[in-house]
Design goal:
The chain has about 475 residues and is an alpha/beta fold. The strands form five sheets. It has a six-stranded parallel sheet, sandwiched between helices. A five-stranded mixed barrel has the order 15-16-17-19-18. The radius of gyration is 23 Å and the shape is globular.
């Protein structure tokens, strides 16, 4: 069946799901309520917006909390073991409360569900889970929802790959003023520690015109800021029938009237082009922030990780970026305790952190992922050593980040107001450099860009004054 036929089929099932949800509402005595919990990356968050949009179209209202929901859906992550365990812990608590809500539908989707051992565990240990589907089945959620509502048996659907992208599905955005936009799916890099290519599949780029059409639609709907999403946005367009470049796509998106800010993630250092560096210098709508995962400062470990660059190459990119965009904010990912990591390897990472001066860093202790090459590597680092190094890395990152983020003190920045702060009378927003700022304001200003003096640096964030 062609992709267009499969998409049309899902629209038919969405109509059927409406009828099934209406019958479900009669049994419940009220409109059905759904609750989606998202684990993991921003691509998962975007997927959840699509799931929420389908549920809304089918007649489900949003539940304020899990306990009051008639349908609970966990959109899972499996990048690290603690993400897996968090999901199982939540399921355990949910199962303990199921007697108080016997008609509830419980579903699991996302990356963890692409792992056969996890699906088998769900089947055997969590019999109250009614619906399970993987990342490649997202486009078929209307059909799966209909089946969960009408069939008495459990619904398990896991495809190993798909050519059907879920872009025609209804979407319910979390924010009216900003939105993610998927420009590609999957990954071809096969870093030896990473499960993503196995659970998300190989790279598929969307056509530029389809992306631009979505961006124009979002702009017309009041969106001011977009985040272009992909596992490796720098390799966008290489497999298209008419190859395109990420830098070229960015330039076209920056021409869309109404869009004021453009962000993107994640960038792989091996594919970061000079054209992209020039675009960041020339396109004023591109936010001066780049998330560029380095993972390690050791050439030996970078080779073992299959990263396809070395320390010198990474530092050369940093030099190019800062020459082109002098005040650019650089953030990164770093793994501690990769198999075989020596104290010398770790010291190389610490020295790179100090040399670059990151605005912030996501730091992780290596997590063994079954099915990846690194899981079978010898010389797995003992937990106590990994944790001790992790603490030292955090201290180095914190020291550098406080220095780098503090460089904006006293400056006036344009801040996009995003949400009410827990402190009454304050709003929280972000600068173009992705710095969090808390400042006086009201909820009516959410979604607006306001001028704020960054008067009080607090390490990773600021308190500001209205200008």
């Amino acid at each position: 069946m062609e992709a267009t036929e499969k998409t049309a089929r899902q629209m038919e099932f969405l109509e059927k799901a409406r009828g099934a949800a209406a019958a479900y509402a009669e049994r419940l005595g009220h409109a059905p309520r759904s609750y989606i919990e998202t684990f993991g990356c921003q691509m998962n968050a975007r997927d959840s917006e699509k799931l929420r949009g389908i549920l809304r179209e089918a007649g489900f209202a949003d539940a304020r909390e899990e306990n009051e929901a008639d349908l609970v859906l966990y959109n899972t992550c499996t990048v690290r073991d603690n993400a897996d365990q968090h999901v199982y812990g939540r399921l355990g608590r949910l199962g303990g409360n199921r007697k108080s809500h016997p008609g509830r539908i419980v579903g699991l989707c996302g990356c963890l569900m692409q792992e056969p051992h996890a699906v088998e565990k769900i089947k055997k240990s969590y019999p109250f889970v009614n619906l399970v589907f993987g990342t490649h089945n997202l486009y078929a959620f209307p059909e799966l929802l209909y089946r969960a509502l009408t069939e008495k048996k459990r619904v398990f659907e896991i495809e190993e790959k798909t050519t059907v992208l879920p872009e025609s599905l209804p979407v319910e955005r979390k924010h009216g003023f900003k939105s993610g936009v998927n420009i590609m799916y999957g990954c071809d890099n096969f870093c030896t520690y990473c499960i993503v290519p196995y659970v998300r599949g190989r790279e598929i780029s969307r056509e530029p015109e389809d992306i631009l059409a979505e961006v124009r639609h979002l702009a017309a709907d009041g969106v001011k800021e977009i985040m272009l999403l992909g596992q490796n946005v720098n390799s966008y367009g290489k497999k298209l029938a008419e190859p395109a470049t990420f830098a070229g796509l960015l330039r076209r998106i920056c021409r869309v009237e109404g869009i004021e800010r453009v962000r993107f993630m994640t960038s792989h250092p091996k594919d970061l082009s000079d054209d992209l560096v020039r675009a960041m210098a020339e396109e004023k709508k591109l936010c001066p922030h780049l998330h560029l995962p380095v993972q390690s400062g050791s050439d030996r470990l970078l080779k073992q990780m299959n990263r396809h660059y070395d320390r010198a190459h990474y530092l050369g990119l940093v030099e190019k970026l800062r020459a082109a965009v002098p005040d650019i904010s650089l953030t990164t990912d770093i793994i501690v305790g990769f198999p075989g990591e020596t104290e010398e390897d770790f010291e190389a990472t610490l020295s790179l952190v100090r040399e670059v001066g990151f605005d912030s860093a996501f730091t992780f202790i290596y997590s063994k992922r079954t099915g990846t090459p690194a899981a079978s590597y010898p010389d797995q680092v003992p937990d106590e050593v990994a944790h001790e190094r992790f603490d030292r890395l955090l201290a180095a990152v914190k020291e550098g980040a406080e220095r780098m983020c503090g460089r904006f003190a006293g400056q006036v920045a344009e801040v996009l107001a995003e949400e009410e702060n827990r402190q009454p009378g304050y709003i929280t927003g972000r600068t173009p450099h992705n710095l969090v700022v808390h400042f006086p304001g009201t909820k009516e200003e959410i979604g607006k860009i306001v001028k704020v003096r960054l008067s009080d640096p607090r390490g990773f964030y600021y308190f500001g004054e209205r200008v």
